[in-house]
Amino acid sequence: MSLQDKLDDFRAGYEADVDTKTSLDGEALRLTRTGVAERAHKAGQMAPEFELPDFAGNPFALAQLRENGPVALVFYRGLW
C-alpha cells in the first residue's frame, strides 16, 4: 500500500468519525474567538527565552541553541 493510499484511508476514517471532527472543529472555533491567534508569535519573530527539560530531563535553554545560529521551534502535541 502506497503512502498516498494510507493517507487516503486515514482521512476517510477521520471524516467518518463525525463526533470527533465536530468536537475538534468546535474547539478550534472557540480558540479562534478568544483572539489567541492574533496574539501568537508569527513566523520569523523571536521567541521569548525559555528553559525546558531535554529528553533526559536536564534543563536546556533556548539561548544555548541560539549560540549556533537561527533556531526553528517545532511543537509536537504528542498522542492524545
Mean pLDDT: 85
Q: Compute the separation of the termini in Å.
A: 26 Å
Beta-strand segment tally: 2
The total of helices stands at 4
Q: Which term fits the overall shape?
A: extended
Q: What's the helix-strand series?
A: HHHEEH
- Give the C-alpha Rg: 18 Å
In percent terms, what proportion of residues is strand?
A: 5-15%
Query: Number of folding domains?
Result: 1
Poorly predicted spans:
none
Summarize the biggest pleated sheet. 2 strands, antiparallel
Give the spatial strand order of the biggest sheet: 1-2
Structural class: mainly alpha
Helix content: 40-55%
Please name the defining characteristics of this protein.
80 residues, mainly alpha, two-stranded antiparallel sheet, extended
How does this model look, in words?
With 80 residues, the protein is mainly α. It contains four helices and two strands; from the N terminus they run H-H-H-E-E-H. It has one domain. Strands 1-2 form a two-stranded antiparallel ribbon. Strand 1 and strand 2 form a beta hairpin. The radius of gyration is 18 Å and the shape is extended. It starts with a helix and ends in a 14-residue tail after the last helix.
